[in-house]
Design a protein that fits this description.
Distance between the termini of chain B: 24 Å
Largest interface: A-B, 13 and 11 residues
Distance between the termini of chain A: 70 Å
Largest sheet of chain B: 5 strands, antiparallel
Order of helices and strands of chain B: HHEEEEEHHHEEH
Structural class of chain B: alpha+beta
Structural class of chain A: mainly beta
Helix content of chain A: 10-25%
Strand content of chain B: 5-15%
CATH superfamily of the largest domain in chain A: YVTN repeat-like/Quinoprotein amine dehydrogenase
Radius of gyration of chain A: 27 Å
Shape of chain A: globular
Radius of gyration of chain B: 22 Å
CATH class of the largest domain in chain A: Mainly Beta
Number of helices of chain A: 8
Strand content of chain A: 35-45%
Number of helices of chain B: 6
Number of domains of chain A: 2
Number of strands of chain B: 7
Oligomer: heterodimer
Helix content of chain B: 40-55%
Chain lengths: 620, 214
């Protein structure tokens, strides 16, 4: 402990001397922090553990990145929508089937499963904006377990994946309206009338986490952008923002920004469930879809400031906060007022049969947060934090008094922000991460392709203070921050849990079984050999390798790469994976362990012999 | 000489008094924990295993410390295979079959002394148990010797034959090894000590009696 304090003191001293040598900069100083204070707040000594996990979406990399807070150290990458040779994801039969031929996805918004509005540490859901899928990661082993989709009718699954209070549903929807069902054609000129959007609830099995299609609501051809589920009093509702209520096509930056207000969509999912139960739905694309023209009481529209982006429900569930990115205000709707307006039918019009509630009747406040407000998170002291993209800042404001009390510059152009458990019923406060779109100049230069930046901000005190910069792969959209002790992962797959029918645990059982042109190889990987060490097939054989890592020790992973056959599978301790390929190239191909395992890792190798080529120079 | 023989015979004929019988009963019960607690324990520490690999030896089984993330016995065997050491498997130890049997026998014989109250039987038992104890220790040491000496000549890493430490600390390759008796052995060591106490008490009681009567 003493050495740690001493080292820290030396570090702080060195840092302050270096800092002092920098000289004064002209112009506006961009986001700096008090070095001593920041160092103390973010220093996690070697061997010590972080206080929080943060799960960041990896955007068009298709993955999820796991970091620790406050150290901001990248700990792990969870492959989701894209193959990832580092863990062998997308190379074995099981994960290939899950990816169903797609080689990438646009991982957008992660959402942790909840029990009574708090993270329960069971699953992480994440949406795919590109190929309209939804994935579930099991936090027991940090592995992607299910990919549902492409979801029928959902086109550009951006306004997703937000969990209801007990993870009954995960929200989904269309960012890009299209003619429905998928595969049908309508002229682009008929966009306003013949193109359709949907908002949806993906049903989640409370025991297994297994996702199924749930329900959808047919919507006008707006662009459904973000969402959040209600909490407490508003727990039966899902909310989505939309832009382009102009129903415009072409260059949307002009055509969709003509009206002063767009909408927040409010769907009562209990009513949606009831409508489905009562048979009030149409089957479209194989999903039960509710048409608001025919079924009242399921969906309403709340007018919101121009082109709103984020919609976030306050921890007490009383306020629905929508940020109009093209105005300098964040609109706060009052849930009770919304319910009164619905009861009194205080409508100012309708869109394709969906009632539009009177703005004045449902709005509680317009908070003057600053330029380009996007998203809002909450702390444990009744404050809200709104990201300001255009201003490159975060505004802190008080719920109830609607007063902006603090602002901090960020570097640069913040998109989402994530506070510690900041979208639950019981936020922790303490830490806030600013997920910035641009990082230019704040890291060692790596050429034109630049990383995104994440900044750790301390929100414990009255004033926010910047603690640390970290950089991430493209592109962190939303993130979830959860107290470390809520997640209890295993590090070894217990042998008795291995249900793979072809798993073997004794090297004596390793074998090669030939059945016509099908060759099955039962293989074991253990420090430091493969058994069998080589196997022979004929050109054109269909080869299936069942590879079991019989280790039962943490961190003893083994990889199996077959040279020039484009195969690399990694098996964790106690895991069995299936590798399928056609031996279409004759010759002798080495295979070896890719995941460094022990002192004799280099020796962990063997040969795949594919007969059917000519004889070698030695035999000629 | 005759006097010594007389004295010895007299000692063998000393009745085991009530207090001593209670102590012998207690000694018999002391053997019960050997069925629940390890007799010996080996701990191996290295940079990779700062929390140590732990091996517990019971009278009837061999067990590595188990956590959801590791089985230490399996891990020790995985590491030992590099130097060509045979895997430690229970079937290799006949001790696990006869030690519990002998302990059970000793318990029964102790109860016999409690009932019959014969000093000669107690002395028999003491000698038998001490012999059993020393033989077990030798047997254990011999096993360690064999494991460390019958190394596979084809092993990847060649090390000179060695005997893993039975008592105390030593350094083996990158491991710091600590080997010490455990609770079960302490209880076992108490048994002959209690037998001695019982003998001494009974003799003292007899001497007192003979003084009074003379």
């Amino acid at each position: 402990m003493k050495t740690r304090i001493f080292l820290l003191a030396v570090f702080v001293l060195a840092a302050s001397i270096l800092g002092g040598c920098g000289g004064e900069k002209k112009g506006r100083v961009s986001a700096r922090s008090d070095v001593q204070e920041a160092a103390l707040k973010s220093y996690v000594a070697p061997g010590d553990l972080d206080e929080y996990y943060i799960f960041k979406s990896g955007g068009h990399s298709g993955q999820v990145y796991v970091y620790g807070i406050p150290s901001m150290r990248h700990i792990s990458t969870i492959p989701v929508f894209s193959p990832y040779p580092a863990t062998g994801y997308g190379f074995d039969k099981e994960s290939k089937e899950m990816l169903s031929g797609y080689t990438w996805g646009d991982a957008h918004h992660p959402s942790l499963s909840e029990t009574d509005g708090d993270y329960d540490g069971r699953w992480l859901f994440i949406s795919d904006n590109a190929n309209n899928r939804m994935a579930r990661i099991d936090l027991r082993d940090f592995k992607t377990k299910q990919i549902l989709g492409p979801l029928p009718n959902v086109s550009g699954n951006h306004c997703s994946s937000f969990s209801t209070e007990n993870t009954e549903y995960i929200l989904a929807g269309s960012r890009f309206s299209i003619p429905l069902p998928k595969g049908s054609y309508e002229k682009i000129e008929d966009y306003a009338t013949k193109y359709k959007g949907v908002v949806a609830g993906i049903a989640v099995d409370p025991k297994t986490g297994n996702m199924s299609l749930g329900w959808q609501v047919l919507m006008p051809p707006f662009n459904y952008d973000l969402g959040d589920a209600g909490k407490g009093p508003s727990k039966d509702w899902g909310f989505w923002t939309c832009y382009n209520s102009e129903r415009a096509i072409g260059k949307l930056e002009v055509t969709s920004t003509q009206k002063d207000r767009d909408y927040v969509v409010a769907v009562n999912w209990k009513s949606a469930e009831k409508a489905i139960k009562d048979g009030k739905f149409r089957m479209i694309g194989g999903v039960k879809v509710i048409d608001p023209k025919q079924t009242e009481g399921v969906v309403y529209l709340l007018p919101a400031a121009k082109s709103p982006h984020g919609v976030d429900v306050s921890p007490d569930g009383k306020y629905i906060v929508a940020s109009g990115k093209l105005q300098s205000i964040t609109t706060v709707f009052n849930y009770e007022k919304m319910m009164t307006a619905i009861q009194k039918k205080d409508f100012t019009g309708n869109e394709d049969g969906i009632p539009v509630l009177s703005y004045d009747a449902v709005k509680d406040a317009e908070v003057n947060v600053g330029l380009g407000p996007l998203h809002t998170q909450f702390d444990d002291k009744g404050f809200a934090y709104t990201s300001l993209f255009v201003e490159s800042a975060i505004a802190k404001w008080k719920l109830g008094t609607w007063e902006v009390v603090d602002k901090i510059p960020v570097a640069y152009n913040i998109g989402h922000l994530a506070a510690a458990e900041g979208d639950t019923k019981n936020p922790d406060g303490k830490y806030l991460i600013s997920l910035n779109k641009l990082s230019h100049g704040r890291h060692l230069s790596v050429g034109p392709s630049q990383p995104e930046s994440s900044q750790l901000i301390d929100i414990d005190g009255e004033k926010m203070s910047l603690v640390m910069d970290a950089f991430t792969e493209p592109e962190p959209h939303y993130a979830q921050i959860v107290k470390a002790d809520k997640i209890k992962p295993i590090e070894v797959y217990p042998k008795e849990e291995n249900k793979h029918s072809k798993a073997i645990w004794d090297q004596k059982d390793a074998k090669v079984v030939r059945n016509g042109k099908n060759v099955e190889v039962y293989m074991i990987a253990v420090r430091t050999s493969f058994t069998p060490t080589s196997f022979e097939v004929n050109k054109g054989d269909k080869v299936t390798v069942y590879l079991t890592n019989i280790e039962q020790t943490t961190d003893e992973l083994h990889g199996l790469a077959i040279n020039e056959y484009n195969i690399n599978v990694v098996v964790d301790p106690g895991e069995t994976k299936t590798i399928e390929f056609v031996a279409d190239k004759p010759g002798v191909y080495p295979f070896y362990c890719t995941n460094f395992c022990s002192a004799l890792h280099q020796e962990m190798q063997g040969y795949l012999l594919v007969k059917g080529g000519g004889s070698s120079i030695a035999s000629q | 000489m005759e006097k010594i023989i007389q004295k010895t015979t007299a000692f063998f004929e000393t009745p085991v008094d009530l207090k001593s019988r209670a102590i012998i009963l207690a000694a018999a019960l002391m053997l019960l924990p050997t069925f629940f607690f390890p007799l010996w324990n080996m701990e191996l520490y290295s940079n990779q295993f700062p929390e140590g690999l732990v091996l517990n030896i019971y009278s009837y089984k061999l067990e590595g410390e188990k956590s959801p993330n590791r089985d230490d016995l399996k891990e020790i065997n995985s590491l030992n295979h590099y130097i060509g050491m045979r895997p430690l498997v229970e079937d290799d130890f006949t001790e696990f079959k006869w030690i519990p049997f002998v302990i059970g026998g000793v318990m029964l014989l102790a109860l016999r002394v409690v009932v019959l109250g014969k000093m000669s039987k107690l002395v028999d038992l003491f000698v038998l148990f001490t012999y059993f104890g020393i033989f077990s220790l030798w047997s254990f040491y011999h096993k360690l010797y064999l494991y460390g000496h019958e190394l596979d000549p084809m092993a990847a890493v060649k090390v000179p034959p060695f005997t893993p430490p039975m008592f105390g600390h030593s350094t083996m390759a990158n491991f710091e090894v600590y080997s010490y008796p455990q609770v079960g052995s302490y209880f076992m060591a108490l048994v002959p000590a209690l037998f001695l106490v019982a003998m001494w008490l009974s003799r003292r009681a007899m001497l007192k009696d003979s003084k009074i009567s003379s």
